Amino acid sequence: MKTTLIAALLATIALGASAQAPAPGTNTPGIDKREARQERRIQHGVNSGELTAKEAHRLDKQQQHIDNMENRAEADGSVTAKERARIHHAQDRASADIRRKKHNERKGS
Q1: If DSSP codes are grouped into helix, strand and coil, which group holds residue 48?
Q2: What is the average pLDDT across 36-50?
């Protein structure tokens, strides 16, 4: 009885651990790191007053769109080179938007 219970518990733990690991071919650490850096840049702009609340909201929505693109690309089990290129292009545009909005004349409160 105890052996069966322990085996079931170990199987449950193993199943939970494997469910958290990304599927092969869907690992996107470069995209994730860049997304995190851009989110930090937006937060820094808000904290320093370089971004208005409206600018920050729009930039956050843009980051959410990129995150959704990444999730859709990963949904089928692999992220193709074309999908990666589209995500990188969207990140390039977002980065330029962050820079442009942080360095315009508008100031946040």
Answers
A1: helix
A2: 95
